[in-house]
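Lecture 7, part 2: worked example. A protein chain together with C2G.
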Amino acid sequence: MIKVITYGTYDLLHYGHIRLLKRAKALGDYLIVGVTADDFDKIRGKINVQQSLMERVEAIRATGIANEIIIEEYEGQKIDDIKRYDVDIFTVGSDWIGEFDYLNEYCRVIYLPRTEGISSSEIREAKRALTLGLVGDSMFLNKVASESKYVNGVCIVGICTKKADSLSDDIKALPLITDKLEELLNYVDAVYIRTKPEEHYQQIKSALIHGKHVLCESPITINAEEYEELARIAHNNNLVLMEAIKTAYATAYARLLLLLKGDKIGDIVSVDATCTRLKKEVDVSDWNGIHEWGPTALLPVFQILGVNYKDRLVVAKYQDRERIHDSFVKMDFIYNNAVASVKVGDGVKSEGELIVSGTKGYAYVPAPWWKTDYFEIRYENASENKRYFYQLDGEGIRYELVAFSKSIETGKNFSNISSVVSKTIVDIMEKFDKASGIISI
Ligand code: C2G
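Predicted complex, written out as structure tokens:
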């Protein structure tokens, strides 16, 4: 019996895949099909896969072509599989020609002509086809423009800005550059907003009223009533209003949360998050420290300990006598059985780490924890320490854009940030801006 093996993602199974599978089967008597696991795809850069692993396995099974279906989970697994299943032939489409010649050491390698004119990416592009407009003057928008290229179906077609000249060539080449938001809104399906928080409410409201979906840098607003109003407008018009905190979409951060929920370090007693970035000179026209860093630093506190803290202590150092621009803020939150401490600022330098302390051990995320691909779970007995690494491309922005476009396309909520957490972040910002209960140093 001649055993043949082939591998693929097989997202949105199409006739190109099926032709490949039929020709692979014809090479022998028994066909094993390896379907790639979600994590494995993400690590190898396939971040747009629409169907779950099980949906893709079931679609392959339904063809009746495969004699056996396995899951491809890690780099190098093909060699293990060829040995384990005593495979005679490895085959894959000609788009991979040369990539798997090393397998000749273990079995015959055959590249089959790829079917032209169809691909999962093209199907996704056609299904999703979302035009996106950027709003703001920040250099951060350059990253969003370059990251959007990795997201099937999302096309940035314009920007509303007053500083186009200071932005990237990608942005300068956009078909529409305007300083009028309404002009941009008439040209796109959705907007990504990165402007000063005090401008968000009006900009988001205008976009929603124009029937546009919104991805907005946190804090979405700095007023709780305004947040509620915007959430209501979005809900009533079946529009997506999603908060952008790229950390929430970093795989390592998301996996850390799952481990902590799984009792890996016992009962969590303390969460300590620090985010600082010392600016050469503080531009009081720019975001102040708490608005720029507060949402990111607060995210693990509220996602790990929840939002029902009993009390809080806020200490702030300001750059200016009017107390408009904070340079350093320390916030402590008291819970029933835990405490959290957040330190943020753009006028003070500290170690940007995240430490979650528990009754069995602790989680340590090194600086810059907010865009980490690595963390450790540490115990009293260091030999039990565990290290985790998860590839992070583009600081998490592309995954955030995928979640936004999937939410729009499906009408389901693919945001990694719950509305309760969003609301609490807004509440903290509003209280801070009203200087309620702040100890100034
Ligand atoms: N394919 C094809 N014709 C197409 C599209 C895909 O012949 N129009 C083939 C690919 O060459 C591959 C298989 O169908 O052999 C599955 O394609 P994908 O689902 O795109 O997955 P891919 O990542 O290309 O799979 O490690 C090997 C890879 O996993 C191969």
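The chain has three domains: 3-118, 129-244, 248-440. The CA atoms of residues 246 and 297 lie 12 Å apart. Keep this in mind for problem set question 3.
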